[in-house]
Write a structure and sequence with these properties.
Length: 263
């Protein structure tokens, strides 16, 4: 299934572009809204996606919001509030699907592009990849969940420095800080991210969903609450098709077939 802006591949990977080359790879509102609609279709069972791949259609993953549009708006506050709402609705849907997510982060991931790269479970970059908050450079504060995710990944002190100094992070620094998961040659970014997304789609999606939920509640749960959540998750997974298949395959000394075991 495909439309102008999203593609559901035969292997269950839902590919969502977040920026278009025609707009200088700035965050594309139509693409974001279309991606949200596609994710909602997944939640309704109308699209059988098992993993998500975020891409930029051009030399950059996403160069941030379209500042010219900000400046030309009759009511900047209302305009920016609407953009933030659309982006938040997209990221909410991204998590609500409970699908593992990969991102092909070529070139710049700035502003909202950096925020979206942080939301990916696996972000593949290349030597020319650059991450930058960008918001302080135009007198604004982050959106898209950047100020929530960044300190959870790099720590509060480092996040404060990156955000307030509007640091440009090169590819190796982003990798060292775990903002990128791996680096490949520039012409291999999409291929590698696509490969990872396909592997995730072929894997135990129920386990992935549980892992993501547990990680996201690490800082809000007490230890006692968290180990109970872990116990509930592993017990619940043990009677799913994937859980049964995984254990049976291990005992039979064969590779598990998770796609055929989903229920």
């Amino acid at each position: 299934m495909s439309d102008d802006l999203t593609t559901l591949h035969d292997d269950g990977v839902l590919e969502i572009p977040i920026s278009l080359e025609s707009a200088g790879n700035s965050l594309d509102g139509d693409s974001i809204r279309n991606g949200t609609d596609a994710l909602h279709e997944v939640m309704r069972g109308h699209r059988k996606a098992r993993a998500v791949l975020l891409v930029g259609k051009g030399k950059n993953f996403c160069a941030g919001g379209n500042v010219a549009h900000f400046g030309g708006a009759d009511d900047r506050r209302q305009f920016l509030r609407g953009l933030a709402h659309d982006l938040n609705t997209f990221t909410d849907a991204l998590y609500a699907t409970q699908l593992p997510t990969a991102a092909a982060v070529s070139g710049w991931a700035a502003g909202a592009g950096m925020s979206l790269a942080l939301h990916a479970d696996f972000a593949v970059g290349e030597p020319g990849t650059r991450l930058r908050p960008a918001y302080p450079g135009i007198g604004l504060s982050p959106d898209g969940g950047m100020s929530w995710l960044l300190p959870r990944i790099v720590g509060l002190g480092r996040a404060r420095t990156i955000l307030m100094r509007d640091e440009v992070l090169n590819a190796q620094t982003a990798l060292d800080l775990a903002l990128l998961s791996e680096l490949v040659d520039a012409d291999q970014v999409y291929t590698r991210a696509r490969e990872i997304a396909a592997d995730l789609a072929n894997g135990p999606t129920g386990a992935y969903a549980a892992i993501r939920r547990l990680l996201m509640t690490t800082y809000s749960n007490t230890l006692s609450e968290h180990v109970i959540a872990e116990a509930d998750a592993i017990a619940d997974l043990s009677i799913t098709g994937e859980g049964v298949e995984g254990v049976n395959a291990f005992l039979a000394k064969r590779a598990p077939d998770f796609p055929s075991a989903r229920n």
